[in-house]
Amino acid sequence: MFSRILVATRGEIALRIIRACKELGIETVVVYSEADRDTIYCRLADDTICIGPSYSSESYLNIPSIIAAAEIADVEAIHPGYGFLSEISHFAEVCQSSNIGFIGPSPKAMDLMGNKSRARQLALDCNVPIVPGSEGTVDDDTTALKIAHHIGYPVIIKASAGGGGRGMRIARNDISLASAINVARTEADAAFGNPAIYIEKLVTEARHVEVQILGDHYGNIIALGERDCSLQRRHQKLIEEAPCPSITPELRNLISAAAIAIAKAAGYYGAGTVEFLVDKHANYYFIEMNCRVQVEHPVTEMVTGVDIIKQQIRIASGHKLRIRQQDVKVEGVAIECRINAEDPRNNFKPSPGKVTTYFAPGGPGVRIDSHLYSGYTVPSEYDSLVAKLIVHRANRREAVACMKRALEEYIIEGIKTTIPLYLEIFGHSAFLSGKVDTNFVESEFFE
Description:
Blueprint: E1 4-7, H1 11-24, E2 27-33, H2 40-44, E3 47-52, H3 63-73, E4 77-79, H4 89-97, E5 101-102, H5 107-114, H6 116-125, H7 141-151, E6 155-159, E7 168-171, H8 174-192, E8 197-201, E9 207-215, E10 221-233, E11 236-242, H9 249-265, E12 270-278, E13 284-290, H10 297-304, H11 308-316, E14 333-340, E15 342-343, E16 349-350, E17 353-354, E18 357-359, E19 366-370, E20 377-378, E21 385-393, H12 396-409, E22 411-413, H13 419-425, H14 429-432, H15 440-445
Parallel strand pairs: 1-2, 1-4, 2-3, 4-5
Antiparallel strand pairs: 6-7, 6-8, 9-10, 9-12, 10-11, 11-14, 12-13, 14-21, 15-16, 17-20, 18-22, 19-21
């Protein structure tokens, strides 16, 4: 097992990693930007190193600075969390060449699955259904037009190297197609340094269902059940739930087997998530794989009892998986709300600033993953996620009631948050009955 790890991320996931390391008896060193000097996780780490100014390009995305910090701190491995460098294969390669462990998959697997068009082909090779679309990246508008006419509108344009909802645009006719492609390319280039895009048929009335997998260096791969991530805004997830309330045991087995097959074909190890769309006829389609720990991993932890962060660290240390597929038991229902520093009623405008009052909910079944505290200033330079509120109860009805109670208890003053929106959602009849799709939030609350 590693004895000293560098935490190369920020926010709630940095604190989550530190907590896991403390329980494993591992020392932690946190790198931070000047904007994050006063964070709670910097106080809780064994050591800290400032790696640059507030801007991500000069700090959390600065590979030479992070490697230098790792060498100065004499760590054995780096945990990248999610975001920033977590899915950058070049960073994993630099870690390897510097004899520093990378707590994540191999650069080869990251390159393969991070390229969405190549990942689609891999899924086809594994006999896993994919959404109809282009065979690879689309380089010109004429080809894009032919593909759109072949598969039929509406279509969705996606960044080949994308993720997190960036570089994605919907086109419903020839007129909007060229504009959508141009915007998607520009956004993809700015976010990922790669303007390549591909096209898929837009599956309407679909649920976004993903399977959490764990794999070790010895070819052992297991699935930890699925999560429903259908409640989204602009392709950004807002609320996640495990298990998915609408799929049958048969479909659950099918998508879990598909996720394992894809991960094995990719030679994958570490924690990863294989994502699918499930249409109203219970047809499922592979869409992508995220080669890192997901923001929503806590809901899977709650229903399975498996600590995914600890498993990541053990796997990277060279340990075999101790958990067999038959050991995985899903118990109860878990729901997560992403608490963002945004104003939902003002086009989700970011709301950085000083938190004047902070009171976290508690009681049976409630978990908070957050780095907030009274007096903390939410910086404007980073993603707006400031907390994750997770509940776990015996069934969905009790979990929904628990979440409503916890949202009502949660006090964050001084900034705007998404809590008022979630209270509306948790009172909506369609959500309460589990009859939602990926368009639910926008169609019911923002049209």
